[in-house]
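re: that chain from earlier
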Amino acid sequence: MANAYDLIVIGAGPGGYVAAIRAAQLGMKTAVVEREHLGGICLNWGCIPTKALLRSAQAFREAREATDFGLSIDCEIGFDAGRIVKRSRDAATRLNAGVGFLLKKNKIDVIWGEATLASPGEVRVAKPQKPPVAPQAPEPKGALGDGTYRAKHIVIATGARPRSLPGVEPDGRLIWTYFDALKPSAFPKSLLIVGAGAIGVEFASFYRTFGAQVTLAEALQQILPMEDREIAALAHKSFQKQGVEILTSTKIVAVEKRENSVVATIEGEGGAKRSVEAERLLSAAGVVANVEGLGLEALGVKIERGVVAIDGHGRTNIPGVYAIGDVAGGPMLAHKAEHEGVVCVEAIGGLPAHPLDKQLVPACTYSHPQIASVGMTEQKAKELGLAVRIGRFPYLANGKAVAMGDTEGLVKTIFDEKSGQLLGAHLFGAEATELIQGFVVAMNLETTEAELIASVFPHPTLSETMHESVLDAYKRAIHI
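^ sequence. v structure.
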């Protein structure tokens, strides 16, 4: 049957397209149903375009600081907002086309449309509400959303969307989601960001670099609530030094829209209220899983706390139906979705797939400075009653950081005192998002403190801060 497959993936984001490719590698006849764009939110409106914007911000900072490196620039450093945004969108478009090429190369059919699970093993596809954003992607076979497709295995990979707060509903003009913040017609002179997780902090860093007066409001007691308390405090201090106003333990109780600005009433601890006016308000209060409109309830698929309930191999409670990525719960990160996709498909294929250990999923925030972490925070380890050894090493004492002129930062490591097991690592500083993978590998291999201490780190590199942090946990640090 032309419409029959071994596996159908609903959603072509990082989890979905990776799952489809792995299935094709294992010899499965595979199709992907996508309603809008290959690569999903991450590639088109998240991970990639935000990093392109942040790279422009980094280049702008470095140009302004050129005299510190003995360079002279005989003109005023400026920027073109339109060209910055275009470069970001071009990066997304290029990678979008790359995903299309990979699916075509692996002989995966792309079916454009809105998918509904009619029954186990049956997917109905209707025409998408708006045309696909990727004209350069491989053309679907047949008409858009041309009927019913069957597969023994169906993987739900529909991702997540920005959370909308009551009274702070985005309108695309005065109140933004991160979609709007990625492609402004002009950079605002002032910006209120509601939510100080990774998304909020990254946009605060970006817009502040280009001169906006930024206010960052967070409902919880610290910015970056998922990060180690000490690291979050360092980031808080750093962003304040850069001119970002930070309000924690606050909530938005009212928003008034004016002709070209918003005035938000913010309530702090003890009920004290104040008004903050800004040209734009960015709602960055997290995301919610896309579980609606798929027919999951009618099929009896179990939903818990707003996400699809799965086991360690992506199986739902309905045989033949699986879920991966954001729609299946946190951490809602692209690399977690990709890994889950591979685990799920390999289990379907009968390979000895190991369930994902979420403690080993790194978190990265690409602000200036960067923040990255894996494993337990210090407070979590202590809540569990573990006796721990803590190592710390400042960037200020690292030769490469001094040579780079980028000495703000800290590497923190947490070890189990009894076993020497590395429980967590937390980085704040230059290239933290690249360095964290060394600790991820170490934890995945169950490396002990003795093995890390015995490892040779190249000199001069920022990675030496990692080694020295381990040494410091055992009172052996050399350079502090």
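Residues 62 and 68 are 9 Å apart (CA to CA).
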